[in-house]
Design goal:
The complex is a heterodimer of chains A (about 200) and B (about 90). Chain A is of the alpha+beta class. Chain A is about 30% helix and about 30% strand. Classes of the chains: A alpha+beta (about 200), B mainly alpha (about 90).
Chain lengths: ~200, ~90
């Protein structure tokens, strides 16, 4: 068994009740039926609002299918007891650090919580903690493979997104194709993991 | 849970890293039977010093308990603690 958590506590936004969800491997089938076919349906949000979401055109199933044999690639999702997928992440374990190119880092290719969990998009979001939980999982994975918690990603340029990552210790380290290169360095990663209660 | 988590905005460009490590094999030809096997294979590949030290191990011939002992030894060489979470 890999020494990584298999469960995660989410907070139901309506009443702050803790709901235990689990991490599941994101297969093409799950991505197709529980993300691509459902995430953007019956939201109650206008087409205009949906188009503003940076991930509104992502095709998770296609991407997961393309990478099904990539052994350095990790496709994960969070599933609640009702069987719905509340968020997903795709990351790589064979990337170089943006900051120290002789060091390895986990690289997050895509991260999103389900649109139903976004308060700027729906009037009654369902769960808090989905994106943060997925990001924490990637950081833990970086630690257990000996990459010292380094995690890099490309953030969209809007202030809300950049500040979300800054708040978790990520630093802006460059720019790439209109996106902001950000990286969580070992010191900050260890701080975060300890703050989350991990005895490392 | 010690504090209320935020709602997270999406991130990433849905594209592979531009700065992939070229010193690593792609592992696509490696056969693994479990997540544990894949984890051990990845860690051995990520750290060349481990490959030398543990080169005589053949995962296919090991049972689960022996693999866990192997992983424990690998973690000791890397200085990694087993992940344990305190009650928060």
């Amino acid at each position: 068994m890999i020494p990584l958590p298999t469960e995660i506590d989410l907070v139901r936004a309506a009443d702050d009740h803790i709901v235990q969800a689990r991490f599941v491997r994101l297969t093409r089938s799950v991505a197709k039926t529980k993300i691509d076919a459902t995430w953007w349906e019956d939201l109650g949000a206008s087409t205009e609002m949906r188009k503003k979401e940076n991930d509104n055109s992502w095709h998770w199933a296609k991407r997961v299918g393309e990478l099904r044999n990539a052994r350095w690639h990790e496709p994960l999702a969070i599933e609640t007891p009702d069987g719905n997928i509340q968020g997903a992440i795709l990351y790589w374990l064979n990337a170089r650090s943006f900051v120290e190119s002789d060091r390895g880092a986990v690289y997050v290719e895509a991260l999103a919580s389900a649109p139903r969990n976004r308060p700027w998009l729906v009037s009654s979001p369902l769960y808090r903690g989905v994106g943060e939980g997925l990001l924490l999982r990637a950081t833990l994975h970086s630690y257990v493979v000996g990459l010292e918690g380094r995690v890099s990603l490309l953030s969209f340029q809007d202030e809300a997104t950049v500040s979300f990552y800054k708040k978790r210790g990520y630093e802006i380290v460059g720019e790439e194709q209109g996106l902001v290169q950000m990286e969580l360095l070992p010191t900050k990663a260890f701080e975060w993991l300890k703050d989350e209660g991990y005895d490392i | 849970m010690t504090k209320m988590p935020d709602f997270a905005p999406p991130a990433g460009g849905m594209r592979p890293p531009r700065n992939v490590r070229t010193d690593l094999d792609d592992l696509s030809a490696v056969r693994v039977k479990s997540e544990l096997d894949l984890h051990i294979v990845r860690v051995l590949e990520l750290h060349p010093k481990l490959k030398v030290r543990f080169r005589n191990y053949d995962l296919a011939s090991l049972d689960h308990d022996t693999k866990m002992i192997l992983l424990h030894d690998i973690n000791a060489v890397l200085g990694l603690k087993t992940l344990r979470r305190r009650d928060t």
